[in-house]
Amino acid sequence: MAENPSQTTSDVPEVDLRNARLAAFLAWLVPGLGHLYQRRTGKGLLFMITILGTFAYGMYLGGGRVVYASSTRPPIPMGISRQAIARAFENAGRWHYFCQLPVGVVALPAYVQAWRVESGKAPLDLFGDNFERPPYTPLDAERLFPNKSKTERDAEYFQTKDFNEEIVYHATEQQKWNHDLNYNFELGTVFTMVAGLLNVLAICDARWGPLVALPPPGEKPDNPGTDKQESSE
């Protein structure tokens, strides 16, 4: 393909991406970190503050309950079958986590917590109240806390009170979270998902650099300084 004579390499601003693959990994690990590594400080701080701030606000709205993985098992095993597709839908119950995961290290505890619950181990007590753990089912609660009576487990994980101060029993803890947090649960989920999807754009920027809009062939780029100089003459 012939080069466009009206567009030379000098027309395109050069950005030193350093090790672009490492920068992309750092940008996923902590939003903005890849850009700081590339010495693009302004953009790095902008991404770090806005993306992590959006994620933190979503966690605040959702009471710290909106980021969790429903399962650590791969959604589709080797081979495609009717059973595999059924299991894929079963394990994709919290599909929102796939959008939250690109925000980086702050979303990784959810996978560890889900793995521990599936393995019959109590979740880690991170930042209090089992940070980013999946909601329990009655079977999970019985398996993880055999020393507690059913009444104690129900009172702690599956019961709440309505506006009339009457006790309401929920089949799962997720239903309890939705009842207690109301629409804030969905709002918090959306904010954390938006943070993850925004970081996808930041990762692409760290890997391939900024998108540069070149002028169409034969059209001179706008240069306000030149226009002013010509008008003054």
UniProtKB/TrEMBL annotation:
Report biased composition (Basic and acidic residues) as residue ranges.
219-233
Name of the protein = DUF6677 domain-containing protein
Could you tell me the superkingdom of the organism this chain comes from?
Bacteria
Q: Where is this region: Disordered?
A: 213-233
First and last residue of the signal peptide: none
Write down a Pfam family by its short name: DUF6677
Q: Which UniProt keywords apply?
A: Membrane, Transmembrane, Transmembrane helix
Say yes or no: keyword Transmembrane present: yes
Q: Which positions, given as ranges, span the membrane? A: 20-37, 44-63
Where's the DUF6677 domain?
Answer: 22-212
